[in-house]
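Self-study notes.
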Amino acid sequence: MNTITENILNVTLLEPRQKHPTIFVRFDELNEGEYLIIHNDHDPKPLYYQLLGERGNIFTWEYLEQGPEWWKVKISKRITGESDETLGQIAAKDVRKAEIFKKYGLDFCCGGKKTVKKACAEKGLDVTKIEQELQQAVKVFTFRPIPYNEWALDFLSDYIVNTHHSYIKKTLPELVSYATKVAGVHGKQHPELYKIKSLVDDVNTELSGHMVKEEKLLFPYIKALVLANAKEQTLQAAHFGTVQNPIQLMETEHELVGKNLDDIRVLSKNYSVPEDGCASYSLLYKMLDEFESDLHLHIHLENNILFPKALEVEKGNSAVAL
């Protein structure tokens, strides 16, 4: 009977000065795709950063056990060419993990092209803690994630319009009204409200024109691409050339709106209503918080799923820019 022997190193049996050098030797002996499990009597987090600094991003780190007596970590050597997924790619595969990014203020929509390591480094966050929470996300959250990444692009386009565009069209006028009202009543005591009102007005102007361009130009073209490919036909190139051109414009506008909402969050101190705030003040901040959350998912669906897939579909079609 054959038995599988795991590659385990109990570092508590080593002298302190031998621990990290021994782990490095054992790691260097690994072939690509192989792993080493280390047992320790405390969190070996400093090892993570030393390994990253001296060997680079060539490993994955997974906690198997975390105290109180034992810490067990599985360190796997990456296969050449295998790289970290970006925030956007991770959220696209499982939107439940976007909740972890939101918890730590990591931008998975407009800033979705960054890796977890890079995003955490920029914000000074503990990457080992966040990667662990991402690994546990599927076990912690009990609801079945909506399979956005599996939907056909024409269906996804309609979903964005019917769900997120409709929400914006209904909510933005109310936001503008409440921002104006609250600034008028409380602006003298809380002058940041004047800037918040101005930013809400900017968001309203930007998104109103933005949605028209998507609904009248970009989305119909994407749906036409899907139909042409299904019928194995060549789609005549649009007047804007390749779909990359409007996509770049949409992504730029997403960044502008995202920046405005980031500024609102800072000005409002994470939507903290002051003691003298009235019911309208509280409602405004609640609506802004909900609006920002919806917009993050909205932009994620476009930047990280719809747009990259539309580019791939266009490559498969012989339509070329004029």
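Second protein, same conventions, sequence then structure:
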Amino acid sequence: MTSDAISGGDAQMRNTGATVKTAIAGLGTIGTTLARQLSQGAISGIELVAIAARDPQKARAVLDEIGCGVPVLPIADLVSVADLVVECAPAAILPEIARPMLAAGKKVMVLSAGALLSNPDLLDLAKQTGGQIIVPTGALLGLDAVSAAAEGKIESIRMVTRKPVNGLLGAPYLEEHAIEIVGITEPLKVFDGTAREAAKGFPANLNVAVALSLAGIGPDETRLEIWADPTVTRNTHRIMVDSDSARIDMTIENIPTENPKTGRITALSVLAALRKLNGPLRVGT
């Protein structure tokens, strides 16, 4: 799976001035933020046409509260009304969201990037039909630089993630290995492995690691440390890349939303990616 196959670029939509009919699958913290912004016309050329959510009645109430009048539809119906679906849902249902869109040669913007590793058939389907999977930068930084370095030779990529304790609670890896983090008073390293392993063990936390791996040298060569850190209040990621074109050392500290597993910048990253689809100026790879 290569990064250029699943991110950036859009020959049909870019700079055409055509309206991109857009749906959102999932109405949690990120989905609600996007619905509010897009329904208010935040991005020229992006028209919000539908929402899909696990609880349609609850979703309708949320949309009414934020002044968004688009219909709430079953996931299976989104393909009939949308050119693009933004996935903001649990990773387990990514195939249900993505497969109909890709089969129709349409587009899916995927936030649950880790789920792509366990569903490689989605990329195959996109190749067959001309559909596209778009992975936005999300809570990370520097993916343009990593993608550029990958055009040459990257020797190694390592990421160190530090999260407040409540941002890691409930992770399957912690439960499977009986790692107790409640009540710790100093930083504790809870994981050291590959991005692929992290995607399985921390499916709600480390989509950023998978996005980094897809931009660079793949999920089995990208190394990751995860620390539960009671001394921090922000989700912090440090990325270190050694390549034949540059040595990269970057750190980002993301302010969490009311959901401690999600940074505020994630929804903003989706808006920025949508703005690039057919904007008159596109900055960055």
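Instructor comment on the second fold: Confidence is low (pLDDT under 50) at residues 1-16.
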